[in-house]
UniProtKB/TrEMBL annotation:
GO molecular function: tRNA threonylcarbamoyladenosine dehydratase; ubiquitin-like modifier activating enzyme activity
GO biological process: cyclic threonylcarbamoyladenosine biosynthetic process
Organism: Arenimonas metalli CF5-1
Coiled-coil blocks: none
Protein name: THIF-type NAD/FAD binding fold domain-containing protein
Length: 291
């Protein structure tokens, strides 16, 4: 085995960032909750860019169905704990990496974690836990890097003073304690997010509507495609880097979509345009679900 040297490991970063910025990355710690698809791609990029400390949290194990897009899912890791298997892979990239690995206990330690982590990557697809994360991040002044449920890569940066997605998207969970969440409420949250994606992007042009109908109805798991998922994780990693280095973020609390089919960045529409598009989207979704 070759001896590991951090300076040699990060030498080719220089030019994209300077030596002082590399030192800042080495001194940073980032919390990544969910290390499967987007979270796994993001955490790989963070480790390879030389972030010195990472806290990984996940409750799942790798499955065969993860092989199509999750960077640390291999036939060797199927059946293994995602956080532990990811940590083992990251240590083979950077054995000097300071890693903290958490399983299901992470949710009970959220306030403790956010007191020491200023930047968080949300790689979960659990709406209830996402709401809890955002509420806790607001209390502790942490920034959350996230993405939409969308067939297009996207990224959101929610700073300490920004409106939570719960308020911005009009979730029915607003003002309700987590123990009061029910399945109907969480389904409505998901539908609000899908509506936002349809209003503010060209996502409907890039999905099979029959599959989308089953997804919205809750009879099919979320669709995933490796280039989309991995690109999203890398966009998230870029936004983490900007936060750590004090560079201006490209995304805000509303986020943006990158359309690799048309090579366009799609940003949220102004309110008057969005209102018209929302009316059209609601009519479209009603017809879609009734067909």
């Amino acid at each position: 085995m070759h001896a590991f040297d951090y300076a040699e490991f990060t030498d080719r970063n220089l030019g994209f960032i300077n030596a002082d910025e590399q030192a800042r990355l080495r001194a940073a710690r980032v919390l990544v909750i969910g290390v499967g698809g987007m979270g796994g791609a993001a955490v790989q990029a963070l480790a390879r860019m030389g972030v010195g400390a990472l806290t990984l949290a996940d409750i799942d194990t790798f499955e065969v169905s993860n092989l199509n897009r999750q960077v640390f899912a291999t036939l060797d890791t199927v059946g293994q704990d995602k956080a532990q298997a990811t940590a083992a892979a990251l240590r083979r990239i950077n054995p000097g990496l300071d890693l903290q690995v958490l399983g299901a206990e992470w949710s009970g330690r959220l306030d403790e974690l956010l007191a020491t982590h200023r930047v968080v990557v949300n790689g979960m697809d659990d709406i209830a836990m996402g709401v809890r994360l955002y509420r806790a991040a607001a209390r502790h002044g942490a920034t959350v890097i996230d993405a939409y449920t969308s067939p297009l890569p996207s990224v959101i940066v929610v700073g300490p003073g920004d409106p939570r997605p719960e308020r911005r998207l009009g979730y029915p969970t607003l003002g309700v304690p987590p123990e009061g969440f029910d399945e109907a409420m969480l389904r409505a949250c998901f539908e609000r997010e899908v509506e936002y994606v349809m209003v503010h992007s060209s996502s409907a042009n890039h999905i099979d509507l029959g599959v989308a109908r089953a997804l919205i109805a809750g009879t099919r798991k979320r669709m995933s495609f490796a280039p989309m998922v991995i690109a999203t994780g890398n966009l998230m990693a870029f936004e983490v880097a900007k936060q750590l280095l004090g560079r201006r973020p490209a995304a805000d609390a509303r986020g943006y979509f990158f359309n690799p089919w048309t090579m366009r960045v799609e940003r949220p529409y102004p309110a008057p345009v969005a209102a018209v598009r929302r009316w059209l989207v609601r009519r479209f979704m009603a017809r879609l679900m009734n067909d």
